[in-house]
Amino acid sequence: MSPKMDRYKRFVVLRDIGKKGLKKIRASKVVVIGIGGLGSISSTKLVTLGIKHLRIVDPDVVDASNLQRQFLYRDQDIGKPKIHLAARRLRPLNPDVTIEPREEQLTEDLVERMVEDMDVVVDGLDRFAPRYILNRACIRKGIPYVFAGALGATGNLTTILPGKTPCLECVYGGVDDTLQPTCHTIGIYPTVLGVVANIQVHEALRIILEQPPRLASQLLFVDLNTLRFDQFPIARHLDCPVCGNQV
Questions:
Q1: For residue 73, which of 77, 91, 156, 205 is within the disulfide window of CB 3.0 to 4.6 Å?
Q2: Confidence band (pLDDT; 50, 70, 90) for 5?
Q3: Is 167 helix (H, G, I), strand (E, B) or coil?
Q4: Domain of 122?
């Protein structure tokens, strides 16, 4: 193995990866939407895995309250755009990976441009309104979408394969963000973000390797206070406004 490839030698020896799997990883393109608590971790892991291209999308600036859990940012970054700081700190982790930062708000007009040409979409959002926009775009474009959310000491995840599994609105349709608790109101443990984001990346990795993701048609609940991991089967809805006509 060449000195450049020494970086991946602990990876290549894994039976389900090997040189063939590494080649797939090195050719893959992933977008992380939202570079906050979840996205800081998932984007870092994806870079160290050695994917070919990482697109990161976030319109926000750093707030002091972010620093407890969003480790890509520092005190001196408060008030500055997250996306360029994140790109600056991700690039030195692996020069093999192209980092593409986009300082954009997720909207109906821009979403397809955000996900186009990507192999997997990884969710780093914290509200359902933009997630619905993202979910619909992934269904239209046929791009796998790894959903996750975390609050307090709990998290939940599912992997959406367009045309094969329930979409986000089959599982969490009609959620009104204004009626939901947030990390601003009940807080969040940085530790649960680590668990959830790493599972997200592992699901994305399985998709890249053309292996069945473990959370396809499954909903996983994580509770660090009880150390429970509960997994439930979920089904597509015939009347889903997004994917029902594909059943």
A1: 77
A2: confident
A3: coil
A4: 3-246
155-183 burial, b at 16+ Cβ within 10 Å, e below that, comes to bbbbbbbbeebbbbbbbbeeeeeeeeeeb
Average pLDDT over residues 33-44: 98
Counting the structural domains of the chain, the total is: 1
Q: What is the CATH number of the domain that holds 87?
A: 3.40.50.720
What is the tens place of the pLDDT at every residue in 109-130?
A: 999 999 999 999 999 999 999 9
CB-based contact 26:71 (threshold 8 Å): no
| Residues whose CB is less than 8 angstroms from the CB of residue 196 and which lie 6 or more positions away in sequence, other chains included | 38, 148, 149, 150, 155, 157, 222
Answer yes or no: pTM beyond 0.85.
Answer: yes
Instruction: List, in order, residues 6 or more apart from 170 with CB less than 8 Å away.
Output: 234, 235, 236, 237, 240, 242, 243
Which one-letter amino acid corresponds to residue 200? Answer: Q
Over 70: is that where the pLDDT of 137 sits? yes
Residues with a known catalytic role: 183
